[in-house]
């Protein structure tokens, strides 16, 4: 669970308390929290709860009735959960102290806290500046060697940008009929929109709604166009045009289309910028966040024609397929695919395969059932892409539980593949695979039949996989010790896995994104990629990120 997911948990807990003070409640949904996963930081929960309650009192200090109403609402929530021995018990005691004080006393306490926080922030800023200077020097050496340009503007002053390097990642102007392609992080351009020139078909059960109104993005945002294929059930959406639920498609058919994802100018490499409840951001803002703007549907023939046009317009004539993991809804999957394509400067055809994950933590068992159900549909998509995309190279990147569907689909594909046939995939990237380690050993030979190169990223810090291993009683392929298998390049990413659960490091950390860039763009083996060093384990050689 990353920081955003943890904030969503706190939002659920305090929603009833904050609801009277929210001007526009459209789109809000209160879901009672019935369980709390292990591994949470109690001190983190304490700090967040204190800050939220303090803010609540400060905002309503002008009205005693408002403060009283807030106290009643909060007490109602906390009293109902009093018997639970979880971090909520901390919130109960804390709320009693905060809400019992008069608003003025609370404001005085807040002022003292703010002064202390300012002093701490100043110290942290000084430390960060020193650390940034060290990192920039390291990045200078790294980017001078690789030619990969950074996204952060502070690095732009420090790093050289020779024009000879730009053709590697900069996309030149395309014909008007071509889909929108994301420029690299170092070249932010005005947004454009495209729906692929196709009319959305009617939704099941009635006529299609009118197309969504044109989206006006800030001038400094970039529009990224991605393709999608999904076996989720479709529903109409006034804002997006269409979206997809967590339910399986009733006819088991694949739905195809395109998405427009906006990337803000302030985007930092590896981050999936989202509204934060702690920053009192209740709606996505294109100037700050990565936002899914438009979803359009395409018939199968139109979809593959559009994919082929995008492939033909790219220098390498390649495409990549991204398969997300557990606890991911369609919106988040599309945003992550857009961020991933943007950060990699990928100018082929980025394709999202979204299976019906429920997008909630408590539905692990349901997601596990759905990922098994979706494997045959993913297999069909891969066959069609090979036959109709015109791509010289197809890469597949799978994360977490999504690796189960990928491995099952590729295993089926290997059964009827001629011995002399060219492999379907050029690069198969398995990031934090939530697969039984021994099962993966058995599948590896089948994966090698359909893939030129296989790369596996694992981490000892992955708390989600640690919980999965505990649940299943057996280690996972994405955990530690690193699996070392013939013709599989295994990489220990423990040194760079830094998100809240250290589970989404594949698309959320600077070194790993750079490593994947070298892998896909330059076809470099792990032994020649700049950020890696070799290590020897019990079963042979694997690779680690340099300190």
TrEMBL record:
Residues 175-217 are annotated as: Disordered. Keywords: Coiled coil. Residues 104-139 form a coiled coil. Residues 194-207 have a biased composition (Low complexity). Residues 176-186 have a biased composition (Pro residues). It comes from the Bacteria. Gene3D superfamilies: alpha/beta hydrolase. The keyword Coiled coil applies. This is Esterase/lipase superfamily enzyme. It comes from Tunturiibacter lichenicola.
């Amino acid at each position: 669970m990353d920081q955003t997911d943890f904030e969503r948990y706190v939002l659920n807990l305090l929603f009833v308390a904050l609801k009277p003070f929210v001007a526009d409640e459209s789109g809000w949904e209160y879901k009672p929290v019935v369980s709390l996963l292990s591994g949470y930081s109690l001190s983190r929960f304490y700090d967040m709860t204190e800050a939220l309650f303090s803010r609540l009192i400060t905002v309503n200090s002008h009205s005693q009735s408002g403060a009283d109403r807030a106290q009643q609402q909060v007490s109602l929530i906390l009293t109902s959960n009093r018997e639970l021995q979880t971090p909520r018990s901390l919130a109960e005691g804390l709320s009693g102290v905060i809400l019992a004080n008069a608003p003025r006393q609370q404001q005085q306490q807040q002022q003292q806290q703010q002064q202390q926080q300012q002093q701490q922030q100043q110290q942290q800023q000084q430390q960060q500046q020193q650390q940034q200077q060290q990192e920039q020097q390291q990045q200078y050496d790294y980017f001078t060697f690789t030619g990969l340009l950074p996204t952060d503007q502070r690095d732009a002053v420090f790093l050289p940008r020779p024009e000879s390097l730009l053709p590697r990642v900069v996309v030149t102007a395309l014909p008007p009929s071509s889909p929108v392609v994301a420029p690299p992080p170092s070249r932010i351009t005005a947004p454009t929109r495209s729906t692929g020139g196709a009319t959305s078909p009617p939704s099941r059960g009635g006529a299609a709604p009118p197309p969504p109104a044109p989206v006006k993005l800030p001038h400094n945002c970039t529009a990224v166009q991605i393709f999608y294929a999904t076996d989720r059930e479709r529903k109409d959406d006034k804002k997006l045009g269409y979206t997809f639920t967590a339910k399986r498609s009733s006819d088991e058919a694949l739905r195809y289309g395109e998405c427009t994802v906006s990337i803000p100018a302030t985007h930092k490499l590896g981050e999936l910028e989202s509204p934060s409840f702690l920053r009192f951001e209740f709606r996505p803002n294109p100037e700050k966040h990565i936002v899914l703007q438009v979803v359009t549907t395409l018939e199968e023939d139109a979809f593959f024609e559009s994919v082929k046009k995008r492939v033909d317009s790219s220098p390498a004539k390649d495409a990549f397929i991204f398969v997300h993991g557990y606890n991911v809804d369609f919106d988040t999957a599309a945003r992550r695919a857009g961020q991933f394509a943007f950060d990699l400067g990928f100018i082929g055809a980025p394709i999202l395969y979204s299976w019906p994950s429920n997008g909630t933590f408590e539905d692990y068992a349901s997601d596990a059932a759905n990922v098994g159900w979706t494997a045959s549909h993913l297999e069909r998509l891969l066959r069609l892409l090979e036959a109709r995309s015109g791509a010289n190279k197809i890469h597949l990147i799978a994360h977490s539980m999504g690796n189960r569907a990928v491995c099952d689909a590729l295993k089926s594909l290997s059964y009827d593949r001629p011995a002399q046939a060219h492999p379907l995939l050029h690069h198969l990237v398995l990031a934090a695979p939530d697969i039984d380690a021994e099962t993966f050993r058995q599948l590896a030979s089948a994966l090698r039949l359909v893939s030129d190169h296989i790369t596996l990223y694992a981490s000892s810090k992955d708390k989600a996989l640690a919980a999965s291993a505990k649940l299943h009683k057996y280690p996972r392929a994405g955990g530690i010790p690193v699996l070392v298998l013939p013709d599989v390049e295994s990489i220990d990413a423990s040194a760079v896995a830094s998100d809240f659960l250290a589970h989404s490091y594949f698309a959320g950390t600077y070194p790993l994104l750079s490593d994947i860039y070298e892998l896909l763009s330059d076809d470099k083996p792990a032994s020649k990629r700049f950020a890696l060093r070799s290590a020897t384990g019990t079963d042979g050689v694997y690779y680690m990120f340099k300190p």
